[in-house]
Amino acid sequence: MKQNTKYQHKKILVLGLAKSGVSAATLLHKLGAFVTINDLKPFSENPEAQGLLEQGITVICGDHPIDLLDEGFELVVKNPGIPYHNPMVKRAIEKGIPIITEVELAYEISEAPFIGITGTNGKTTTTTLIFEMLEKGSKMPMIAGNIGTVASDVAQMAEGHNQIVIELSSFQLMGIDTFRPKIAVLTNLYDAHLDYHRTRPEYFEAKSYITKNQTVDDYFIVNYEQEEVMNIARLSQATIVPFSTKQFLETGASVKDGWVYFNGEPILERSQIVLPGDHNLENILSAIAAAKLTGVENRAIHYVLSTFTGVKHRLQYIGDKHGRKFYNDSKATNILATQNALNAFRQPVVLLAGGLDRGNEFDELLPAFKQIKALITFGQTAEKLERVGKQAGIKTIIRVDNVEKAVPVALDLSEADDIILLSPACASWDQYKTFEVRGDIFINAVHKL
Protein backbone atom coordinates (compact mmCIF):
# COMPACT_ATOMS: atom_id res chain seq x y z
CA MET A 1 0.00 0.00 0.00
CA LYS A 2 1.33 3.42 -0.98
CA GLN A 3 1.95 5.95 1.74
CA ASN A 4 -0.70 8.63 1.30
CA THR A 5 -0.97 11.85 3.32
CA LYS A 6 -3.61 13.45 1.07
CA TYR A 7 -6.42 12.86 3.54
CA GLN A 8 -4.56 13.49 6.78
CA HIS A 9 -6.50 15.86 9.09
CA LYS A 10 -9.24 16.34 6.45
CA LYS A 11 -12.88 16.26 7.46
CA ILE A 12 -14.60 13.63 5.30
CA LEU A 13 -18.18 12.37 5.14
CA VAL A 14 -18.80 8.76 4.10
CA LEU A 15 -22.37 8.67 2.80
CA GLY A 16 -23.97 5.21 2.94
CA LEU A 17 -22.33 2.13 4.31
CA ALA A 18 -22.61 -1.42 2.95
CA LYS A 19 -19.25 -3.09 2.28
CA SER A 20 -17.66 -0.26 0.31
CA GLY A 21 -18.66 2.38 2.87
CA VAL A 22 -17.23 0.41 5.79
CA SER A 23 -13.99 -0.15 3.88
CA ALA A 24 -13.72 3.51 2.86
CA ALA A 25 -14.37 4.78 6.39
CA THR A 26 -11.85 2.38 7.92
CA LEU A 27 -9.19 3.24 5.34
CA LEU A 28 -9.66 7.00 5.68
CA HIS A 29 -9.48 6.71 9.46
CA LYS A 30 -6.22 4.78 9.05
CA LEU A 31 -4.93 7.56 6.75
CA GLY A 32 -5.51 10.17 9.45
CA ALA A 33 -8.79 11.73 8.27
CA PHE A 34 -11.55 12.95 10.57
CA VAL A 35 -14.31 10.64 9.37
CA THR A 36 -18.06 10.90 9.84
CA ILE A 37 -20.34 8.20 8.45
CA ASN A 38 -24.01 8.77 7.66
CA ASP A 39 -26.29 5.81 6.95
CA LEU A 40 -30.07 5.45 6.67
CA LYS A 41 -30.29 2.25 8.70
CA PRO A 42 -30.97 2.93 12.41
CA PHE A 43 -27.94 2.53 14.67
CA SER A 44 -29.58 -0.24 16.73
CA GLU A 45 -29.99 -2.33 13.56
CA ASN A 46 -26.62 -1.38 12.07
CA PRO A 47 -23.72 -3.59 13.21
CA GLU A 48 -21.41 -2.00 10.63
CA ALA A 49 -21.99 1.46 12.12
CA GLN A 50 -21.57 0.08 15.62
CA GLY A 51 -18.18 -1.36 14.66
CA LEU A 52 -17.04 1.94 13.17
CA LEU A 53 -18.07 3.81 16.32
CA GLU A 54 -15.85 1.49 18.33
CA GLN A 55 -12.93 2.59 16.11
CA GLY A 56 -13.55 6.20 17.11
CA ILE A 57 -15.36 7.22 13.93
CA THR A 58 -18.31 9.61 14.24
CA VAL A 59 -21.57 7.83 13.36
CA ILE A 60 -24.91 9.40 12.37
CA CYS A 61 -27.65 6.90 11.51
CA GLY A 62 -31.37 6.76 10.83
CA ASP A 63 -31.69 9.51 8.21
CA HIS A 64 -29.69 11.84 5.96
CA PRO A 65 -29.88 15.29 7.67
CA ILE A 66 -29.18 17.93 5.02
CA ASP A 67 -27.74 20.37 7.56
CA LEU A 68 -24.97 17.87 8.27
CA LEU A 69 -23.28 19.23 5.16
CA ASP A 70 -22.91 22.63 6.86
CA GLU A 71 -20.22 21.21 9.15
CA GLY A 72 -17.26 21.95 6.90
CA PHE A 73 -16.65 18.65 5.12
CA GLU A 74 -13.89 18.76 2.50
CA LEU A 75 -14.90 15.55 0.72
CA VAL A 76 -17.84 13.16 0.39
CA VAL A 77 -17.21 9.47 -0.32
CA LYS A 78 -20.55 8.28 -1.66
CA ASN A 79 -21.93 4.76 -1.77
CA PRO A 80 -22.26 4.04 -5.51
CA GLY A 81 -25.90 3.06 -5.13
CA ILE A 82 -26.98 6.52 -3.95
CA PRO A 83 -28.00 8.50 -7.08
CA TYR A 84 -26.82 12.00 -7.77
CA HIS A 85 -30.38 13.34 -7.61
CA ASN A 86 -30.53 12.29 -3.92
CA PRO A 87 -31.18 15.50 -1.86
CA MET A 88 -28.06 14.97 0.27
CA VAL A 89 -25.85 14.54 -2.79
CA LYS A 90 -27.45 17.47 -4.60
CA ARG A 91 -26.77 19.67 -1.58
CA ALA A 92 -23.11 18.60 -1.49
CA ILE A 93 -22.79 19.49 -5.18
CA GLU A 94 -24.39 22.89 -4.56
CA LYS A 95 -21.86 23.55 -1.78
CA GLY A 96 -18.98 22.58 -4.07
CA ILE A 97 -17.89 19.61 -1.96
CA PRO A 98 -16.02 17.04 -4.12
CA ILE A 99 -17.75 13.65 -4.34
CA ILE A 100 -15.91 10.39 -5.06
CA THR A 101 -16.61 6.68 -4.76
CA GLU A 102 -14.49 4.13 -2.93
CA VAL A 103 -12.80 2.98 -6.17
CA GLU A 104 -10.94 6.29 -6.32
CA LEU A 105 -9.50 5.68 -2.84
CA ALA A 106 -8.39 2.21 -3.90
CA TYR A 107 -6.52 3.60 -6.90
CA GLU A 108 -4.76 6.27 -4.86
CA ILE A 109 -3.24 3.78 -2.42
CA SER A 110 -2.60 0.84 -4.76
CA GLU A 111 0.92 -0.26 -5.69
CA ALA A 112 -0.57 -2.59 -8.33
CA PRO A 113 -1.90 -1.55 -11.75
CA PHE A 114 -5.59 -1.98 -12.55
CA ILE A 115 -7.42 -3.82 -15.32
CA GLY A 116 -10.90 -2.27 -15.31
CA ILE A 117 -13.94 -3.84 -16.97
CA THR A 118 -17.26 -2.12 -17.60
CA GLY A 119 -20.21 -2.34 -19.99
CA THR A 120 -23.94 -3.04 -19.87
CA ASN A 121 -23.69 -6.82 -20.22
CA GLY A 122 -20.86 -9.30 -19.84
CA LYS A 123 -18.84 -7.49 -17.17
CA THR A 124 -18.77 -10.31 -14.65
CA THR A 125 -17.99 -13.06 -17.16
CA THR A 126 -15.25 -10.97 -18.77
CA THR A 127 -13.75 -10.02 -15.40
CA THR A 128 -13.73 -13.65 -14.29
CA LEU A 129 -12.18 -14.85 -17.55
CA ILE A 130 -9.40 -12.25 -17.36
CA PHE A 131 -8.68 -13.17 -13.75
CA GLU A 132 -8.60 -16.89 -14.57
CA MET A 133 -6.30 -16.37 -17.56
CA LEU A 134 -3.89 -14.20 -15.60
CA GLU A 135 -3.89 -16.63 -12.71
CA LYS A 136 -3.22 -19.60 -14.98
CA GLY A 137 -0.53 -17.50 -16.66
CA SER A 138 1.22 -16.87 -13.29
CA LYS A 139 0.58 -13.10 -13.36
CA MET A 140 -0.60 -13.05 -9.71
CA PRO A 141 -3.88 -11.20 -10.25
CA MET A 142 -6.26 -10.06 -7.52
CA ILE A 143 -9.99 -9.65 -8.19
CA ALA A 144 -12.02 -6.71 -6.88
CA GLY A 145 -15.12 -4.62 -7.27
CA ASN A 146 -18.67 -5.84 -7.78
CA ILE A 147 -17.50 -9.39 -8.35
CA GLY A 148 -15.05 -9.77 -5.49
CA THR A 149 -13.66 -8.05 -2.42
CA VAL A 150 -14.12 -4.30 -2.00
CA ALA A 151 -11.48 -2.53 -4.10
CA SER A 152 -9.86 -0.55 -1.29
CA ASP A 153 -9.45 -3.73 0.77
CA VAL A 154 -7.71 -5.42 -2.16
CA ALA A 155 -5.56 -2.35 -2.86
CA GLN A 156 -4.22 -2.35 0.70
CA MET A 157 -2.93 -5.91 0.19
CA ALA A 158 -1.70 -5.58 -3.39
CA GLU A 159 1.96 -5.20 -4.29
CA GLY A 160 3.65 -3.99 -7.45
CA HIS A 161 3.89 -7.47 -8.98
CA ASN A 162 0.12 -8.01 -8.68
CA GLN A 163 -2.58 -6.84 -11.07
CA ILE A 164 -6.00 -5.84 -9.78
CA VAL A 165 -8.79 -7.04 -12.08
CA ILE A 166 -11.88 -5.01 -11.23
CA GLU A 167 -15.47 -4.98 -12.46
CA LEU A 168 -16.79 -1.42 -12.50
CA SER A 169 -20.35 -0.13 -12.66
CA SER A 170 -21.41 3.21 -14.09
CA PHE A 171 -22.32 4.18 -10.52
CA GLN A 172 -18.72 3.70 -9.40
CA LEU A 173 -17.20 5.37 -12.45
CA MET A 174 -19.19 8.57 -11.92
CA GLY A 175 -17.22 9.04 -8.71
CA ILE A 176 -13.65 8.81 -10.01
CA ASP A 177 -11.15 11.66 -10.30
CA THR A 178 -7.66 10.29 -11.03
CA PHE A 179 -8.48 6.57 -11.46
CA ARG A 180 -6.53 5.29 -14.46
CA PRO A 181 -6.53 1.60 -15.40
CA LYS A 182 -3.54 0.29 -17.33
CA ILE A 183 -6.02 -1.76 -19.35
CA ALA A 184 -9.69 -0.77 -19.69
CA VAL A 185 -12.42 -2.91 -21.27
CA LEU A 186 -15.80 -1.66 -22.53
CA THR A 187 -17.83 -4.75 -23.46
CA ASN A 188 -20.95 -3.11 -24.92
CA LEU A 189 -23.53 -0.38 -24.33
CA TYR A 190 -27.32 -0.68 -24.17
CA ASP A 191 -30.01 1.29 -22.36
CA ALA A 192 -29.88 0.48 -18.64
CA HIS A 193 -30.14 2.06 -15.18
CA LEU A 194 -32.12 5.00 -16.50
CA ASP A 195 -33.86 5.27 -13.13
CA TYR A 196 -30.42 6.22 -11.75
CA HIS A 197 -28.90 8.17 -14.62
CA ARG A 198 -32.17 9.69 -15.90
CA THR A 199 -30.92 9.87 -19.53
CA ARG A 200 -29.20 7.58 -22.01
CA PRO A 201 -26.39 10.08 -22.77
CA GLU A 202 -25.62 10.43 -19.05
CA TYR A 203 -25.38 6.63 -18.69
CA PHE A 204 -23.07 6.33 -21.71
CA GLU A 205 -20.94 9.22 -20.44
CA ALA A 206 -20.55 7.50 -17.07
CA LYS A 207 -19.30 4.37 -18.82
CA SER A 208 -16.81 6.45 -20.82
CA TYR A 209 -15.11 7.58 -17.60
CA ILE A 210 -13.21 4.29 -17.52
CA THR A 211 -10.87 5.71 -20.16
CA LYS A 212 -10.97 9.44 -19.35
CA ASN A 213 -7.59 9.45 -17.57
CA GLN A 214 -5.82 6.94 -19.81
CA THR A 215 -2.83 7.93 -21.93
CA VAL A 216 -1.16 6.45 -25.00
CA ASP A 217 0.76 4.15 -22.64
CA ASP A 218 -2.50 2.47 -21.64
CA TYR A 219 -4.87 0.16 -23.55
CA PHE A 220 -8.59 0.49 -24.20
CA ILE A 221 -10.26 -2.75 -25.37
CA VAL A 222 -13.51 -1.97 -27.19
CA ASN A 223 -16.38 -3.61 -29.06
CA TYR A 224 -15.68 -2.83 -32.72
CA GLU A 225 -19.26 -3.68 -33.75
CA GLN A 226 -20.95 -1.05 -31.57
CA GLU A 227 -21.03 2.50 -32.85
CA GLU A 228 -21.70 3.91 -29.37
CA VAL A 229 -18.60 2.17 -28.01
CA MET A 230 -16.42 3.24 -30.93
CA ASN A 231 -17.57 6.86 -30.48
CA ILE A 232 -16.13 6.73 -26.97
CA ALA A 233 -12.97 5.05 -28.27
CA ARG A 234 -12.38 7.90 -30.75
CA LEU A 235 -12.22 10.36 -27.84
CA SER A 236 -9.83 8.22 -25.78
CA GLN A 237 -6.10 8.97 -25.53
CA ALA A 238 -5.33 5.28 -24.95
CA THR A 239 -4.09 2.77 -27.49
CA ILE A 240 -7.27 1.22 -28.92
CA VAL A 241 -7.54 -2.57 -29.07
CA PRO A 242 -10.76 -3.62 -30.82
CA PHE A 243 -12.55 -6.97 -30.79
CA SER A 244 -15.14 -8.27 -33.25
CA THR A 245 -17.24 -11.42 -33.61
CA LYS A 246 -18.34 -10.46 -37.13
CA GLN A 247 -15.17 -9.62 -39.06
CA PHE A 248 -11.49 -10.47 -38.99
CA LEU A 249 -9.22 -7.76 -37.55
CA GLU A 250 -5.48 -7.60 -38.20
CA THR A 251 -5.15 -5.70 -34.90
CA GLY A 252 -7.13 -6.84 -31.90
CA ALA A 253 -9.19 -9.96 -31.22
CA SER A 254 -11.51 -11.60 -33.75
CA VAL A 255 -12.55 -14.88 -35.37
CA LYS A 256 -11.87 -16.40 -38.77
CA ASP A 257 -12.44 -19.85 -40.27
CA GLY A 258 -13.30 -21.38 -36.91
CA TRP A 259 -10.28 -19.93 -35.10
CA VAL A 260 -9.88 -17.14 -32.56
CA TYR A 261 -7.09 -14.67 -33.35
CA PHE A 262 -5.26 -11.86 -31.58
CA ASN A 263 -3.21 -9.44 -33.69
CA GLY A 264 -3.25 -11.95 -36.53
CA GLU A 265 -1.98 -14.83 -34.37
CA PRO A 266 -4.20 -17.92 -34.05
CA ILE A 267 -4.93 -18.55 -30.34
CA LEU A 268 -7.28 -21.56 -30.35
CA GLU A 269 -10.07 -23.19 -32.31
CA ARG A 270 -13.52 -21.92 -31.50
CA SER A 271 -14.76 -25.51 -31.12
CA GLN A 272 -12.53 -25.87 -28.04
CA ILE A 273 -14.43 -23.13 -26.18
CA VAL A 274 -17.02 -24.69 -23.85
CA LEU A 275 -18.89 -21.49 -22.87
CA PRO A 276 -21.98 -21.23 -25.15
CA GLY A 277 -23.38 -18.22 -26.95
CA ASP A 278 -22.30 -15.52 -29.40
CA HIS A 279 -22.61 -12.92 -26.64
CA ASN A 280 -20.08 -14.90 -24.60
CA LEU A 281 -17.75 -14.92 -27.60
CA GLU A 282 -17.59 -11.12 -27.23
CA ASN A 283 -16.61 -11.56 -23.58
CA ILE A 284 -14.03 -14.18 -24.53
CA LEU A 285 -12.41 -11.98 -27.20
CA SER A 286 -12.09 -9.02 -24.86
CA ALA A 287 -10.62 -11.27 -22.16
CA ILE A 288 -8.10 -12.75 -24.60
CA ALA A 289 -7.03 -9.23 -25.59
CA ALA A 290 -6.46 -8.26 -21.96
CA ALA A 291 -4.57 -11.47 -21.23
CA LYS A 292 -2.30 -11.14 -24.27
CA LEU A 293 -1.55 -7.51 -23.41
CA THR A 294 -0.29 -8.66 -20.01
CA GLY A 295 1.91 -11.35 -21.56
CA VAL A 296 -0.17 -14.46 -20.82
CA GLU A 297 0.85 -17.44 -22.95
CA ASN A 298 -1.60 -19.13 -25.32
CA ARG A 299 -1.57 -22.41 -23.41
CA ALA A 300 -2.97 -20.67 -20.30
CA ILE A 301 -5.71 -19.04 -22.36
CA HIS A 302 -6.47 -22.38 -24.02
CA TYR A 303 -6.78 -24.15 -20.67
CA VAL A 304 -9.20 -21.57 -19.26
CA LEU A 305 -11.46 -21.47 -22.33
CA SER A 306 -11.59 -25.26 -22.64
CA THR A 307 -12.68 -25.67 -19.00
CA PHE A 308 -14.62 -22.50 -18.07
CA THR A 309 -18.37 -23.27 -17.97
CA GLY A 310 -19.63 -19.89 -16.80
CA VAL A 311 -19.98 -17.58 -13.84
CA LYS A 312 -22.59 -18.55 -11.28
CA HIS A 313 -26.08 -17.32 -12.26
CA ARG A 314 -24.86 -16.21 -15.71
CA LEU A 315 -25.78 -18.97 -18.18
CA GLN A 316 -24.22 -21.35 -15.65
CA TYR A 317 -24.29 -25.02 -16.60
CA ILE A 318 -25.76 -26.95 -13.66
CA GLY A 319 -25.63 -30.47 -15.00
CA ASP A 320 -27.31 -33.20 -17.02
CA LYS A 321 -30.36 -34.78 -15.41
CA HIS A 322 -32.17 -37.58 -17.25
CA GLY A 323 -30.65 -36.41 -20.52
CA ARG A 324 -31.75 -32.78 -20.04
CA LYS A 325 -29.16 -30.04 -19.66
CA PHE A 326 -29.98 -27.45 -16.98
CA TYR A 327 -28.70 -23.86 -17.16
CA ASN A 328 -29.02 -21.16 -14.47
CA ASP A 329 -29.20 -17.67 -15.97
CA SER A 330 -30.85 -15.94 -13.01
CA LYS A 331 -28.68 -12.85 -13.67
CA ALA A 332 -30.78 -12.29 -16.81
CA THR A 333 -32.79 -9.47 -15.26
CA ASN A 334 -33.57 -7.77 -18.58
CA ILE A 335 -34.90 -8.69 -22.02
CA LEU A 336 -31.54 -8.45 -23.82
CA ALA A 337 -29.89 -10.92 -21.45
CA THR A 338 -32.66 -13.48 -22.01
CA GLN A 339 -32.46 -12.95 -25.78
CA ASN A 340 -28.74 -13.70 -25.63
CA ALA A 341 -29.33 -16.80 -23.53
CA LEU A 342 -31.98 -18.21 -25.88
CA ASN A 343 -29.83 -17.47 -28.93
CA ALA A 344 -26.98 -19.46 -27.37
CA PHE A 345 -28.80 -22.76 -27.97
CA ARG A 346 -29.82 -24.71 -31.06
CA GLN A 347 -31.63 -27.47 -29.14
CA PRO A 348 -35.28 -27.26 -27.99
CA VAL A 349 -35.59 -25.07 -24.88
CA VAL A 350 -37.98 -25.19 -21.94
CA LEU A 351 -37.80 -21.63 -20.57
CA LEU A 352 -38.48 -20.60 -16.98
CA ALA A 353 -39.18 -16.85 -16.86
CA GLY A 354 -40.88 -14.11 -14.87
CA GLY A 355 -40.37 -11.73 -11.97
CA LEU A 356 -40.72 -8.09 -11.01
CA ASP A 357 -43.06 -6.03 -13.18
CA ARG A 358 -41.33 -2.75 -14.08
CA GLY A 359 -44.10 -1.71 -16.46
CA ASN A 360 -42.47 -2.89 -19.70
CA GLU A 361 -43.81 -5.40 -22.20
CA PHE A 362 -41.84 -8.33 -23.65
CA ASP A 363 -42.58 -8.11 -27.39
CA GLU A 364 -38.84 -7.87 -28.14
CA LEU A 365 -38.58 -11.51 -27.05
CA LEU A 366 -40.94 -12.67 -29.80
CA PRO A 367 -38.25 -13.74 -32.32
CA ALA A 368 -36.28 -15.66 -29.67
CA PHE A 369 -39.46 -17.27 -28.29
CA LYS A 370 -40.12 -19.03 -31.59
CA GLN A 371 -37.55 -21.71 -30.74
CA ILE A 372 -39.04 -22.46 -27.31
CA LYS A 373 -40.65 -25.85 -26.77
CA ALA A 374 -42.46 -24.86 -23.56
CA LEU A 375 -42.75 -21.77 -21.38
CA ILE A 376 -43.13 -21.87 -17.60
CA THR A 377 -43.93 -18.53 -15.98
CA PHE A 378 -44.00 -17.17 -12.44
CA GLY A 379 -44.02 -13.84 -10.63
CA GLN A 380 -45.66 -10.51 -11.43
CA THR A 381 -44.89 -10.63 -15.17
CA ALA A 382 -46.30 -14.12 -15.79
CA GLU A 383 -49.32 -12.88 -17.73
CA LYS A 384 -47.27 -10.54 -19.94
CA LEU A 385 -44.81 -13.29 -20.84
CA GLU A 386 -47.65 -15.71 -21.55
CA ARG A 387 -49.16 -13.23 -24.01
CA VAL A 388 -45.92 -13.07 -25.99
CA GLY A 389 -45.55 -16.86 -25.74
CA LYS A 390 -48.98 -17.40 -27.29
CA GLN A 391 -48.17 -14.88 -30.02
CA ALA A 392 -44.97 -16.83 -30.77
CA GLY A 393 -46.96 -20.02 -31.14
CA ILE A 394 -45.66 -21.81 -28.06
CA LYS A 395 -48.14 -24.64 -27.51
CA THR A 396 -47.28 -25.46 -23.91
CA ILE A 397 -47.45 -22.56 -21.44
CA ILE A 398 -47.84 -23.22 -17.72
CA ARG A 399 -47.90 -20.81 -14.79
CA VAL A 400 -46.47 -21.89 -11.40
CA ASP A 401 -46.05 -20.17 -8.04
CA ASN A 402 -42.25 -19.90 -8.02
CA VAL A 403 -38.94 -21.12 -9.40
CA GLU A 404 -38.76 -24.17 -7.15
CA LYS A 405 -42.11 -25.48 -8.42
CA ALA A 406 -41.12 -24.74 -12.02
CA VAL A 407 -38.22 -27.23 -12.07
CA PRO A 408 -40.13 -30.55 -11.79
CA VAL A 409 -42.74 -29.21 -14.22
CA ALA A 410 -39.97 -28.44 -16.70
CA LEU A 411 -38.63 -31.97 -16.33
CA ASP A 412 -42.07 -33.43 -17.11
CA LEU A 413 -42.47 -31.22 -20.19
CA SER A 414 -39.03 -31.99 -21.61
CA GLU A 415 -37.31 -34.87 -23.36
CA ALA A 416 -33.75 -36.10 -23.58
CA ASP A 417 -31.39 -33.59 -25.25
CA ASP A 418 -33.64 -30.63 -24.37
CA ILE A 419 -32.33 -27.52 -22.60
CA ILE A 420 -34.06 -26.42 -19.39
CA LEU A 421 -33.17 -22.77 -18.90
CA LEU A 422 -33.88 -20.33 -16.08
CA SER A 423 -33.56 -16.92 -17.75
CA PRO A 424 -36.22 -14.72 -16.15
CA ALA A 425 -35.91 -11.48 -18.21
CA CYS A 426 -36.92 -9.72 -14.97
CA ALA A 427 -35.53 -8.62 -11.65
CA SER A 428 -36.20 -10.95 -8.73
CA TRP A 429 -37.53 -8.54 -6.11
CA ASP A 430 -41.19 -9.50 -6.35
CA GLN A 431 -40.39 -12.91 -4.81
CA TYR A 432 -36.68 -13.07 -3.94
CA LYS A 433 -34.26 -10.71 -2.25
CA THR A 434 -31.66 -11.04 -5.03
CA PHE A 435 -31.14 -12.81 -8.33
CA GLU A 436 -28.52 -14.91 -6.52
CA VAL A 437 -31.15 -16.23 -4.13
CA ARG A 438 -33.42 -17.03 -7.07
CA GLY A 439 -30.59 -18.86 -8.85
CA ASP A 440 -29.62 -20.83 -5.76
CA ILE A 441 -33.21 -22.01 -5.33
CA PHE A 442 -33.18 -23.18 -8.95
CA ILE A 443 -29.89 -25.03 -8.45
CA ASN A 444 -31.17 -26.75 -5.31
CA ALA A 445 -34.40 -27.75 -7.04
CA VAL A 446 -32.41 -29.31 -9.91
CA HIS A 447 -30.24 -31.27 -7.47
CA LYS A 448 -33.38 -32.54 -5.75
CA LEU A 449 -34.35 -34.23 -8.98
TrEMBL record:
Q: Which reaction does it catalyse?
A: UDP-N-acetyl-alpha-D-muramoyl-L-alanine + D-glutamate + ATP = UDP-N-acetyl-alpha-D-muramoyl-L-alanyl-D-glutamate + ADP + phosphate + H(+)
Q: What is its EC number?
A: 6.3.2.9
Q: Which residues belong to the signal peptide in this entry?
A: none
Q: Name one GO cellular component term.
A: cytoplasm
Binding positions for ATP per the UniProt entry:
G119, T120, N121, G122, K123, T124, T125
Q: GO:BP terms for this protein?
A: cell division; cell wall organization; peptidoglycan biosynthetic process; regulation of cell shape
Domain Mur ligase C-terminal, chain residue ranges per copy: 313-426
**Where is this protein chiefly located?**
cytoplasm
Ranges in a coiled coil = none
Where is this protein localized, as stated in its record?
Cytoplasm
The main enzyme category here is ligase
Function according to Swiss-Prot or TrEMBL: Cell wall formation. Catalyzes the addition of glutamate to the nucleotide precursor UDP-N-acetylmuramoyl-L-alanine (UMA).
- PANTHER family the UniProt entry points to: UDP-N-ACETYLMURAMOYLALANINE--D-GLUTAMATE LIGASE
Q: What is this protein called?
A: UDP-N-acetylmuramoylalanine--D-glutamate ligase
What is the gene called?
murD
